[in-house]
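Forum: Protein Structure Q&A
Topic: Joint prediction for protein chains with partners

I've read a bunch of threads here and the consensus seems to be that you should model interacting components together rather than docking separate models afterwards. I'd like to see that in practice. Below is the full input, 812 residues plus whatever partners are listed. Could one of the regulars post the assembled result?
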Amino acid sequence: MADTATQKISPKHEIRRAQIIACAEGEFEKHGFHGAGMSAIAKACGMSVGHLYHYFSSKEELIQAVVQAELDRQACRLDELESLPPEMLASDAARKVETILMHNDNPYRTVLNFEMLAEAQRNPKIAQMLQVNDKLMRDRFCALLISAGVDEPEDRTELLLAFFSGLPARALRHPEQERQSLVDVLVPVVEKIFGEPFRKTET
Amino acid sequence: MADTATQKISPKHEIRRAQIIACAEGEFEKHGFHGAGMSAIAKACGMSVGHLYHYFSSKEELIQAVVQAELDRQACRLDELESLPPEMLASDAARKVETILMHNDNPYRTVLNFEMLAEAQRNPKIAQMLQVNDKLMRDRFCALLISAGVDEPEDRTELLLAFFSGLPARALRHPEQERQSLVDVLVPVVEKIFGEPFRKTET
Amino acid sequence: MADTATQKISPKHEIRRAQIIACAEGEFEKHGFHGAGMSAIAKACGMSVGHLYHYFSSKEELIQAVVQAELDRQACRLDELESLPPEMLASDAARKVETILMHNDNPYRTVLNFEMLAEAQRNPKIAQMLQVNDKLMRDRFCALLISAGVDEPEDRTELLLAFFSGLPARALRHPEQERQSLVDVLVPVVEKIFGEPFRKTET
Amino acid sequence: MADTATQKISPKHEIRRAQIIACAEGEFEKHGFHGAGMSAIAKACGMSVGHLYHYFSSKEELIQAVVQAELDRQACRLDELESLPPEMLASDAARKVETILMHNDNPYRTVLNFEMLAEAQRNPKIAQMLQVNDKLMRDRFCALLISAGVDEPEDRTELLLAFFSGLPARALRHPEQERQSLVDVLVPVVEKIFGEPFRKTET
DNA sequence: CATGAATGAGGCTTCATTCAT
DNA sequence: CATGAATGAAGCCTCATTCAT
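Posted by a regular:
Agreed with the consensus. Here's the joint model:
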């Protein structure tokens, strides 16, 4: 009755859905996936509860849509890097990191982030979505590294992602940490990961 | 170790509390802080709901106790490092990482981990607990680095913590990643963070 | 008549609310404000518990609505007196007292009455409602006395109200008291309060 | 197992009971008969819950004891009047009213008062206690009036009791009423009830 | 005489979801 | 396309009472 995938491709419908996703995201950020109620979300959309169910047949589906939207946004961050000439990758990536961290009020989007990770541990559908998205991003990033002539791209990718996955948790556990100081530490690491042989000796 | 108030120090009471915390942790891991019900927790403890409230006056308080227990466990991991002779720190730390990752079924304890981080975003008490604990661990770790004669201990600490905070998220998003391969990547990073100047040029 | 907030003025909604108030009143009379359960009230309304909360957001609010309804009914008793020509006030008031006491099964509505007074001692909102209503009734009654040319209207009002406030308690503590006998005693008192100088010497 | 009447007449036991009644009264005044919990009462007594049940086999029984204690106190107020010479009754009663109202912080003891009346409506045992006590007091008061040579003692008694039963409700609904002004009104009324023919024409 | 651990039914309230209009 | 009335299970928590120690 309500296909997650084969939704009608009416433009109005899609626009409405996007608006709802945006509102729901706000509620989820404020109260968590389990703390936010469907009626509160409906109210935030200026919409009746019943009508909400015309667009999303269950809360589960709405959560998935919100998660997917966030994953898409995360993937978009690679677009810029892909448009760079390969030889400038290392330097520009580091600069980009600096820009994001210094000129962004909420650089890590921690709220939805942890909500998603927590949910993924109990909800296989969400877990799969994260994993599929991660594979896409890894592949794209690996391709970037390869085009830049960097060796061992998988390992470097994994390393970089581990790093950036850790930053949101650090922001929560150590919020008074100065951004500038963090940037000073991160930039050389990024450059190293992008450009320099990081394993001295192989077994 | 962490009394919310001046709890009576009856030994039986404390033992019971610890048992409840253990059971509750299991339920929270299975269903999340908000998904696990007090009655299910009581059942898991072999106890009536009402009686649960003789030990924890609210779900909130029980969650805090579980969180504190996990934080204490995390802090304990530093104990071993502190018992090492300073000059062996770098090498032993790397070896310890390897041991943990390779010989442990659930090395990251991701479940409670993310549940805590997600909760910390809406629950100031939990957030504070994480931050207080983080400060403690940072200070202890810095002291280790200083005793080992390493410069810029704060930055190195932050870097290392970012790294290890990222691993759980990586495990969720990229579960098929081979542990051995990950270890191969991590060990040199750890060594570098422990021992080597990581900033080539200072401004 | 007494909106807690700016309730929507949907007629259906208001009718339903009134029905619920009536049913709740019945339950409160039978079991008291604290003895009556929301689920029993819902059942008495032929309604699910959850739905009750679409009309009253808490038991507290429902209690307030029931109290206000009773207070409004009490105030209505003045309507008739106000429609009388001033010179007939004394005689008609006494006759009215007789009518109420003799031709009414439950002339004092003691049940809700004492429930309200008991509740007012712990619930400031209820206390305030009683006091506001009392002021309104006193003012209206004073105006009546003034229009009838009676002196010292405030004191007479207070006296009369003390009297009639005492009757419900008497009915409870002395239920076998004959009504007719009581009326014989009351009528001259009422007449005296309405018409005759009751203080022999004024300062 | 636990006789309400034939309790052991051990002096210690009785003293303890009296202490508990005093503490329970405090709790009942603060939270009402239904709002006060047995464990809170036990705590107020510095006693364990279980032990409380050695003195009162149920909450119901405790409530009854508290009610009886209050009724006994009310009856005691007649003692003084009974010790007066009959001819001074009218004047002294009025003066006594004045003394009570002007030199007493809580002259009406409204809290327990209304709690009792509300409870009496649903609890036949309590109702009976009030009624038995009321009969005793009426009889004693009638005897006083008769000894003072006053006619129609029953009616006068009922009238006076109605008056004084109304004052607590007035105190709740019109708390800002000045005491002095009230006394000025009451004193002549009391005198009239005690001493003067109040019905102009008898049938 | 005294404790407090233990029970489990019942309290108020919220929730995702459905359906008649 | 849109509403909001309606459901009832489940949520957290409190209570009077009992019983082993």
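Chain A touches chain B through 50 residues (CB under 8 Å).
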